[in-house]
Amino acid sequence: MISLSMFRGVWRYRGFVLGSVKREFQSKYRNSLFGALWTVLNPLAMITVYTVIFSEVMGSRLQGVNSTFAYSIYLCAGALTWGLFAEITTRAQTVFIENANLIKKLQFPRICLPIIVVLNACVNFAIIFGLFTAFLVWSGHFPGAVYLLLFPVLALQILFSIGLGMVLGVLNVFFRDVGQFFGILLQFWFWFTPIVYPATALPKAVRELLVFNPMAAVIGAYQTILVHGRAPDWAGMLPIAILTVLCCVMGLLLFRKRSGEMVDEL
User: Fold this and answer.
1) Which of 142, 163, 172, 199 could form a disulfide with 136 if both were Cys (CB 3.0 to 4.6 A apart)?
2) According to the 3-state scheme, what is the secondary structure of 97-140?
3) Where is the ABC transmembrane type-2 domain (predicted)?
4) What is the rounded distance in angstroms from the CA atom of residue 222 to the CA atom of residue 153?
């Protein structure tokens, strides 16, 4: 089994993986005055801006939801989770290039590198989303037990992100234009996903194209749970679940086939 042999190696090098995650987190704030406090201040500032600017100053509202904070929750639910997707895919596509010296000098399972990317992104996301959850509780908009449905959606998103990221990461070693192209694509992808606007604001012809946007279903699931307090449309997420499996399998196969050649290219 491809994945079994790979992840046995990861387990043997778990100290290296966890140590790398810890070092990267510490290095981000090593020479700053407030240190790790910035992990709280940055997302707190984001949530405050979304709440004050959009809910109070601009008076933004969502149709069918009678709440002052509804739009800011809708916006945070989309923007924060999109940030996780963007961080994993963007970092995964350059992870082998950025660690070229490490790959050439040390013998270790190179699959550890994408896993380190995922763990680092998840640590950052846990802090940010934890603060957002505290805001939901404070504002009286915590959705209750349906909140637990976020976890399968989150797991699906992470798997899709790293599957896509690994495909891009391997291809980017051999074709450096891949990284440049994806950076541009990601900007268009963001605006084609209902994050800062509801899907109902789009013309009908454009709205029908959202079925081809896998992140629209994921972001919509988060927004349904957090804004409306109900379960998402699981049937509507079947296409991205299939795409996730394909991306993960393709990423692992591509990595296994080309990992030996990457050293020469790097």
Assistant:
1) 142
2) HHCHHHHHHCCCCCCHHHHHHHHHHHHHHHHHHHHHHHHHHHHC
3) 34-258
4) 8
